[in-house]
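Open question from group meeting: does this chain pack into something compact, or does most of it stay loose? Before anyone orders reagents, we agreed to write out a predicted structure and look at it together. Recording both the input and the output here so the notebook holds the full record.
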Amino acid sequence: MRVNAVAPGPILWPDSGVFDNAARQDIVAHTLLQRAGCPQDIARAVRYLLNDADYITGQVINVDGGRTAHL
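Structure tokens returned:
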């Protein structure tokens, strides 16, 4: 049995208005790639885990533009 996870970063913003434009820009500014992602970025990570990662288990793939990188 394999168990993996995908941890998205700034991809889609909630419709509730919790994050105004300034908050969104601040979050994106703290990513190494300096941009928000898209749902296709998450889909590609999931597809990789399903199709090409048969010897990977117990991992979390951060799809967050480098927001969690510790440099």
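Observations to bring back to the group:
The mean pLDDT is 95.
The chain is about 30% helix and 10% strand.
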